[in-house]
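Help needed: design a sequence for this.
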């Protein structure tokens, strides 16, 4: 897929999502209610032309369409496509003797399919209670008056919103390459912070005496060069950084 085609698909997805969310912007209102002990709360609810949310047929139709377009259709399409991929990867025995490289490639692709299926399962688990809640409250309006229903709804809402939070955890757990790059990124961020701290101390003159040594100047050049060019020497950089920090403390005392 070309970059132009991928960008077009992304724009279409965002446009469709914006159009589908437009009724929320159009019909959402803020209302203030006075509760017991003179407590006033302001709520944001959707008020459709034929009634408020939970009592409106338009709201029920919108919730059903929202369920189909953002939950049922994506899950069915992903399960269908991943099942076809799995069928090819697990069912294709090949002709003749496979090389070790081919076997390793197939095993790697199988792991990716497993990972994607777990992502789909987590998505289904997180969003199902959210969709069922609105369908249930329309069919049985008395549910909204149950004890602790607000706490239950908040739990359901947080579960749905937290879905994307679990994706990187799944990638780290089931994808070795992603896990290695993620560790490398965190380590590089830590190394950059250490290097910035060292530069700040150097500008303040804490390393003046130490940097006169040709060996120390060489180490400093190596630190900058290794960090900018090769991330594999981060451990060496940090060890040198610790050594220089100890020398700085001795100089100050």
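Sure. Designed sequence:
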């Amino acid at each position: 897929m070309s970059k132009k085609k991928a960008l077009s698909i992304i724009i279409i997805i965002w446009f469709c999502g914006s159009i589908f969310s437009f009724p929320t912007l159009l019909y959402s209102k803020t209302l203030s209610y006075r509760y017991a002990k003179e407590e006033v709360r302001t709520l944001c609810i959707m008020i459709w032309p034929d009634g408020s949310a939970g009592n409106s047929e338009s709201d029920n139709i919108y919730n059903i369409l929202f369920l189909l377009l953002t939950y049922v259709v994506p899950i069915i399409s992903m399960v269908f496509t991943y099942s076809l991929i799995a069928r090819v990867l697990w069912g294709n025995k090949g002709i003749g003797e496979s090389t070790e490289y081919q076997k390793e490639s197939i095993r790697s692709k199988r792991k990716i399919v497993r990972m994607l299926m777990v992502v789909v399962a987590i998505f289904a688990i997180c969003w199902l209670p959210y969709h069922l809640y609105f369908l249930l409250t329309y069919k049985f309006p008395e549910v909204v008056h149950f004890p602790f229903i607000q706490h239950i709804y908040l739990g359901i809402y947080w579960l749905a919103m937290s879905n994307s939070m679990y994706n990187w955890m799944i990638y780290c757990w089931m994808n070795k390459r992603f896990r290695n790059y993620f560790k490398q990124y965190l380590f590089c961020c830590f190394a950059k912070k250490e290097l910035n701290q060292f530069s700040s101390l150097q500008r303040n003159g804490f390393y003046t005496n130490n940097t006169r040594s040709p060996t120390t100047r060489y180490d400093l050049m190596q630190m900058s060069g290794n960090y900018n060019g090769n991330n594999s020497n981060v451990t060496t950089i940090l060890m040198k950084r610790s050594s220089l920090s100890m020398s700085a403390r001795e100089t100050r005392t």
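The first helix runs from residue 3 to 27.
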